[in-house]
Amino acid sequence: MPNPRSSRRAARFSESVIxxxxxxxxxxxxxxxxxxxxxxxxxxxxxxAACAAIQDDQNQYAITWGTPRLRHAVARRYxxxxxxxxxxxxxxxxxxxxxxxxxxxxxALFDPGDEVLIPEPFYENYGPDAVLAGAVPVYVPLxxxxxxFDADAFAHxxxxxxxxxxxxxxxxxxxxxxxxxxxEAVARLCRTHGxxxxxxxxxxxxxxxxxxVPLATLDGMRERTxxxxxxxxxxxxxxWRVGTIVAPPDITDAIRKxxxxxxxxxxxxxxxxxxxxxxxxxxxxxxxxxxxxxxxxDALLPGLRKAGFHCRTPEGAYYVLADISGLAEGDxxxxxxxxxxxxxxxxxxxxxxxxxxxDLGRHLVRFAFCKRIETLEHAVDRLERFxxxxx
Length: 391
Ligand code: GLN
Description:
Layout: H1 8-11, H2 17-28, E1 31-32, H3 44-55, H4 68-82, E2 92-95, H5 97-109, E3 115-120, H6 126-133, E4 136-141, H7 151-156, E5 162-168, H8 180-193, E6 196-200, E7 225-230, E8 243-246, H9 249-263, H10 268-280, H11 283-306, E9 310-311, E10 319-323, H12 333-344, E11 346-347, E12 349-350, E13 364-368, H13 373-388
Parallel strand pairs: 1-11, 3-4, 3-5, 5-6, 6-7
Antiparallel strand pairs: 2-8, 7-8, 9-10, 10-13, 12-13
Helix pairs in contact: 2-12, 3-10, 4-10, 5-6, 5-9, 11-13
The chain binds glutamine.
């Protein structure tokens, strides 16, 4: 039902299905494999550092675009991990999570009518981000069966209004980590057509095969790439809302202004805690993060397959898109997801939430495996029981 008091803009998108499924999971006491947030604690070091920062009275606004300590820690991390040179004074904005980062980037860089290419399936925020900025999201399917980046399909959708490509790698919801050849194809597209790249790299440290490569490190890309990331996934603190943007100085100036008027700044003591972690955690932390997520993936996937879901093995991030065709008995993804929450006691996200046309995702659901091994084993038991009982 249309809401007469809503702006036309707000009327053009609906409530987040991911967060709605968290409510459905609560209603049914289901294991929540819908919303991607960890159910295990953040490292004690971060929690102690946050408490210390508050006790130390870091309770007022930080500099709008981020505390110097965090910006320098971020710049050092980009240098160490990727050999990327980042000017902490002129090329970084700290935001309230990657979510605000993406919205601020869209508002700062795109004019009404500008077109933005978005590979599909996609994380649900990018469409509303475009709508809020008045930009036009142009969705381009990844190529089946392996969800590969198809440069020709993208090139065909380029018009005089196209301004940018959005790239999320490691990818939510597919678990894809785009290969070197695919990244090169994106880079070539941007260079040839004078496009910006906006990359969401929030899962950068969660890869199972091979390592993450920021698009900005490819030839000629640093000056045309806006790199978004943050602390949420790397340090299991999704509720802290500490995101980061790295971009060339002129782009950073525009983003800083928008960010200032949207939120003034990210939580000051939490920025300090994240900086402390980045300063003291070495490679061993990032290695064990990958190993732990690998174990979580391996705790869920065989069970999913045994229960009758078909899925490709994710190379990164902490999601798996599962085909429900063998189990759904004619239900679409939304009905099936609700039934799974109610009857099996495990809540996924309906696949249609990740597509521009719902019918493209009707045979899919997404499971998040950023959970304790016990939680995942419990979910697998429930799913196997559900499938044995003939759904
Ligand atoms: N990124 C997470 C997901 O895809 C959380 C989404 C959210 O609620 N902001 O599940």
